[in-house]
Amino acid sequence: MSDQSRRPRRPAKPYRRPKKDPVRVLAFEALRAVDERDAYANLVLPPLLRAARERGDFDARDAALATELVYGTLRRQGTYDAIIAACVDRPLREVDPPVLDVLSLGAHQLLGTRIPTHAAVSASVELARVVLGDGRAKFVNAVLRKIAQDDLDGWLERVAPPYEDDPEEHLAVVHSHPRWVVSALWDSLGGGRAGIEDLLRADNERPEVTLVARPGRATTDELLGEEAAVPGRWSPHAVRLTEGGEPGAITAVAEGRAGVQDEGSQLVALALAGAPVEGRDRMWLDGCAGPGGKAALLGALAAERGAVLLASEKQPHRAGLVAKALAGNPGPYQVVAADGTRPAWRPGSFDRVLVDVPCTGLGALRRRPEARWRRRPEDLDGFAPLQRGLLRTALESVRVGGVVGYATCSPHLAETRAVVADLLKQFPDADLIDARPLLPGVPDLGEGPDVQLWPHVHGTDAMYLALLRRTG
Ligand SMILES: C[S@@+](CC[C@H](N)C(=O)[O-])C[C@H]1O[C@@H](n2cnc3c(N)ncnc32)[C@H](O)[C@@H]1O
């Protein structure tokens, strides 16, 4: 007879159904969609929140918490992975992705929010029971109890190498960015530790919602009447909503007279429109227009000057979005679905041309919490020929004396200065012009002639702009 069989049997604990917490379940579903379907959090979350509100499961506070849990968990995934790895006895790649999502959500509640420890652990274990089952909930409980033994600073000291030994890896773990991204951002930014740390920190903050009052269609005064609205920092057409809110519910936005647009994007359109050109100024081209934010601002600016905008976009469904963004534009415009590297127009047709080219988006990490983990250094090679092709066509499309704006929402040097330098070699009849005076009042624009904006310096996305004039 074994020892066990001689022990009196303990009465089994009565089975208790797990408590289903709609906020955590929804956050988990959003994380699974991001992982399994390569979905974008900013696209996946709104319909889930809407459905929860319609079911009566959610109020505004629940929606805010679910959003914070999803965005915070995704942004800080690199840091949390390093901490979770220190608390499990197998490589993270051997932990099932849904289990890892529950652990990351729990780690975020423990280390990145003010939710009390016991509530964070018990809510995560309940979530695990609902979505993973009781067996794996025990594992989740054990790991989260280990994580709860220290705070974030304590964990970072343990899991990140000292800055002096390996600065890039230290910053990658502490500020939750892939190492190659830290390295690329630092190359572009230059300077010492303080600047890059401020930038990485800014990438982890929720950006304010910024509106543009499209000239001739809405005024900033109209938008400043909204709750917690303040003027933009740099663009005369910008209004910031300091408490976020629902921009779609604002009348001017719903009517397309205003839109949601980062000030960096507004500055790109304004600088191109403001660049001096001699003689004719009637034909403007946006060669990569989808979904149409810059085209809508350019269209309104063109209308004020009696110019016509042609907005061209390769993907038909995105050309449809451009048409929607431009509907009601006060002046003439046309939207076409066309490949910007094989133009359907004659060379030299335009006085001003914008190419806001497809890129890695490393300048907009604040908005796309999962993007940093999805991007790979090889993506740069994929974009390189297209970026060069689009800039070449833009230079061919502008008349002598006209201006081309080359823009990216990435500060990666391979997508910015390297592209412009290559094209200037191939296309000797073009000169860079100083973009800085065309962004009046904006400080810290570097040595020029191109411009790189930064989240931690300007509060904008890290937009890049080079302005080129065709000389022959
Ligand atoms: C960075 S986005 C432009 C954003 C836009 N300027 C705005 O402010 O809303 C780049 C766009 O270029 C489009 N694109 C990609 N390849 C293209 C090509 N060969 N010709 C024209 N557009 C292209 C993409 O579909 C994408 O919509």
UniProtKB/TrEMBL annotation:
The lineage of its organism: Bacteria, Bacillati, Actinomycetota, Actinomycetes, Kitasatosporales. GO terms for biological process: methylation. InterPro entries: MeTrfase_RsmB-F_NOP2_cat (IPR049560), MeTrfase_RsmB-F_NOP2_dom (IPR001678), NusB-like_sf (IPR035926), NusB_RsmB_TIM44 (IPR006027), RCMT (IPR023267), RsmB/NOL1/NOP2-like_CS (IPR018314), SAM-dependent_MTases_sf (IPR029063). It comes from the Bacteria. Belongs to the class I-like SAM-binding methyltransferase superfamily. RsmB/NOP family. This is RsmB/NOP family class I SAM-dependent RNA methyltransferase. The active site is at C409. Its EC number is 2.1.1.-. Residues 185-471 form the SAM-dependent MTase RsmB/NOP-type domain. GO terms for molecular function: methyltransferase activity. S-adenosyl-L-methionine binds at C288, A289, G290, P291, G292, G293, K294, E313, D339, D356. The keyword S-adenosyl-L-methionine applies. Keywords: Methyltransferase, RNA-binding, S-adenosyl-L-methionine, Transferase.
